[in-house]
From TrEMBL:
Record key words, sorted: ATP-binding, Nucleotide-binding
Top-level taxon of origin: Bacteria
GO MF, any single term: ATP hydrolysis activity
Entry-linked InterPro entries: AAA+_ATPase, ABC_transporter-like_ATP-bd, ABC_transporter-like_CS, FeS-cluster_ATPase_SufC, P-loop_NTPase
Gene source species: Candidatus Roizmanbacteria bacterium RIFCSPHIGHO2_02_FULL_37_24
UniProt similarity note: Belongs to the ABC transporter superfamily. Ycf16 family.
Record keyword Nucleotide-binding present: yes
Residue intervals of the ABC transporter domain: 2-237
Alphabetized PANTHER family for the sequence: ABC TRANSPORTER I FAMILY MEMBER 6, CHLOROPLASTIC (PTHR43204:SF1)
PROSITE patterns (UniProt xref): ABC_TRANSPORTER_1, ABC_TRANSPORTER_2
Protein name, per record: Fe-S cluster assembly ATPase SufC
């Protein structure tokens, strides 16, 4: 589904990702773990087409068998790739309904958008009042992350990168978010959770855990790899 082939990435002359190869399979769930500065978020941003990151000439990004190296972020989004923000942005004067009308660009009528947003908000225990407010202005960490998850569901991508969706949320909010992510899994979505911690993985079970360090994938394995990291830290891997 999403293949990374010899992915080497630079900012200017500085290499920040080194010869990464991996194949994300359709309908599977992955966790990308690693200490701060290991390259987790950089990898996701590169896949999404962030213009600051330059691919090596031998690097290849393939989505459903087609090269997306030269596609800008909006084209990758249209093809079915979604990346949540590690720190969701605030949008003054724009609520979630307005944002989704713009993002979906006529694919759903406004009434249908409102109904779907409200349905997902009910699942995530978000108040109607919050939906009508400027997006993320004065919202708690958990509320911001829940609104990101709604955006992912509304855009209906094939593959979803959640970048630290468990950071800055309390235990109850994390469980609610995890339950919603599991509902996306049941719809056949490919889920990639970028996280420092094992706690969300107790609720969203990954098929494979990938560990990064210094811009490289150093090991991958099953869920017990995340359990090992929780007990021994990254130095024990």
């Amino acid at each position: 589904m999403l293949e990374l082939k010899n992915l080497t990435v630079s900012i200017g002359r500085k290499k920040i990702l080194h010869n990464i190869s991996f194949d994300f399979k359709k309908g599977k769930t992955y966790a990308i773990m690693g200490p701060n500065g290991s390259g987790k978020s950089t990898l996701a941003a590169t896949i999404m087409g962030h213009p600051a990151y330059e691919l090596n000439k031998k690097s290849r990004l393939l989505f459903n068998g087609k090269t997306i190296n030269n596609d800008p972020p909006h084209k990758r989004s249209e093809k079915g790739i979604f990346l949540s923000f590690q720190t969701p942005l605030s949008l003054s004067g724009i609520n979630i309904y307005q944002l989704m009308r713009y993002a979906l660009d006529g694919k759903l009528d406004p009434l249908e958008i409102r109904k779907k947003v409200q349905k997902y908000a009910k699942q995530l225990k978000i108040s109607e009042e919050l939906l009508s407010r400027s997006l993320n202005e004065g919202f708690s960490g958990g509320e911001k992350k829940k609104l990101e998850v709604i955006q992912a569901a509304m855009l209906d991508p094939e593959i979803i990168f959640f970048d630290e969706v468990d950071t800055g949320v309390d235990v109850d909010a994390m469980r609610i978010i995890a339950s919603f992510i599991n509902s996306l899994k049941k719809k056949g979505k490919t889920i990639i959770l970028i996280t420092h911690y094992n706690r969300i993985l107790k609720h969203v079970k990954p098929d494979e855990v990938i560990v990064m360090r210094d811009g490289k994938i150093i090991v991958s394995g099953k869920k017990n790899l995340a359990d090992q990291i929780e007990k021994e830290g990254y130095e024990g891997v």
